[in-house]
Write a structure and sequence with these properties.
Elements (H helix, E strand, L loop, with lengths): L2 E5 L5 E17 L2 E12 L3 E5 L6 H9 L6 E6 L2 E2 L10 E4 L11 H11 L4 H14 L15 H13 L5 E5 L7 H18 L2 E6 L2 H7 L2 E6 L2 E6 L1 H6 L4 H6 L4 E10 L3 E6 L4 E5 L11 E6 L5 E3 L9 E11 L3 E8 L4 E7 L11 E5 L5 E5 L1
Parallel strand pairs: 4-9, 4-10, 7-8, 8-9
Antiparallel strand pairs: 1-2, 2-3, 2-5, 5-6, 10-11, 12-13, 12-15, 13-14, 15-21, 16-20, 17-18, 17-20, 18-19
Helix pairs in contact: 2-3, 2-4, 3-4
Amino acid sequence: MAQTFMQNQRGITAFQPLDVELRSVFKFFNEEPAVHGIDLDVRQGEFFSILGPSGCGKTTTLRLIAGFERVDAGKVLIQGQPMTHVPPYRRPVNTVFQSYALFNHLNVWDNIAFGLRLQKLRKSEIDTRVKDALKLVKMESLRSRFPSQLSGGQQQRVALARALVNRPAVVLLDEPLGALDLKLRKEMQFELSNLHRNLGLTFVMVTHDQEEALCLSDRIAVMNQGKIEQIGTPNQIYERPQTSFVADFIGDTNLFSGEIAVVESSCVQIMTKTGLTIVVTRHEDTPTELSQAVMVSVRPEKIQLSLYSPSLSTNCFEGRLVNVMYLGTHVNYVVELTNGANINVLQPNTFGNLPERDTPIYAWWEESDCLAISQ
């Protein structure tokens, strides 16, 4: 079985087997590539998310792993075994769909037991495994209800139990919480995280919800137009995006287009197209070629505001408030800088009086709080 070297959150290094491998995978629809030569490894026991906008190829990728679509080029391996000629029902995976795909004419118990009966297992084993699955998703008391008698969250739990009862090596989740309202989605995120931690199974989830991917995943693959833009931990994806697409898609950011004007040992100076001079802390992967076109990314929560001019020599700009949006826990400010550029600023709500629109204001951020990305 293939293995990869990883370091866990406690800093302990170990060789971790791979449960899912995609090698130069292509999938075409009407001669157009839906998946364009992607490579990825999913480690055993990992919660791995494939994140991207509608039409980026993420669901097609999940269907290729499940076997519902066949690859046109490349390889899919599960637990080191090629899956090219293995039909979906013989792959060691189970899929949880956004629509739940429950059988309306069967009650909760029979929905969960359905796959086990197809395997012709003994009744005693089926009963034991269904009871365990019901207990796992906290649905013991609703075993006799039909799908139409369940809430969305309860139906989702049944769909999860039906997938888990077969004891798959890999659980595939296709937008599993997309049909739920916000409050219930938050609750189910917590339940899903607990299930993953307690079971130790490999989860591969497809979602377009950035917050969902960030809070649940060990690692994330960000897809765009059939290709993978970046793979990394939630912290790496958010704090150190490698492309302007990832920076813009994951959370909110302020992007400035410009070129490198000065390169020093500890920082890089960028002149934007609108005339701002922004200084960025230099990292190992920071572009350093003079006159190179770059994007500067600054997250809204990294920007500070002041009614008075701070005694700062870099990354401090004068402007005026053009919008103030109260969000409860936070306040979103839109600042128009003197050069005409608008920036978004997100600050915690400290229960003070909010400044009014057109108030003159200064926006500033640390050199280490912005990032230069090659265009």
